[in-house]
Amino acid sequence: MHTQTLTVVRIIEIARCSDKGMAFPKRTELSFEHDGGRAFGVVIPGWPQIEEGARFVCALEQPDNWQTLIGWKNLTTGEIAAPDTGRPLWVITTALASALLMLFMTAWNIDLLWQDTPGWLLAFPPALAIAGSLRWRAVRRQRAFIERLPGA
Q: 58, exposed or middle or buried, with CB in 10 Å at 0-12, 13-18, 19+?
């Protein structure tokens, strides 16, 4: 991850979006001019306070590519805008459900079900749980990186 410090000179456009569900959490879409140029169509997690003259230290996946913005720390107010880690409840639920399914099938020796069920279908719940937990850990790491960004 790369960091970049900037001062917002002018806000061109800003839109606060709130879609239901975790697939599309609250976000702010904006275009602005900063002391190093312009940025268009930038998406930032949450609804952070953004004002002209505010200074930010930003975390980008690729340098100078605002489409890869992960989050930022407002140096004026100290506010952090970073991906929400949420709770890994669905990951835990999926893992438990798949473990119970495998335990049930093994304990009752349900050979017919094992023979008639495609292997990919049996592997899907554990794979989903593993992928979800890996994604959750990556988002936690991104948020921790943004929280550790220097103050002023």
A: buried
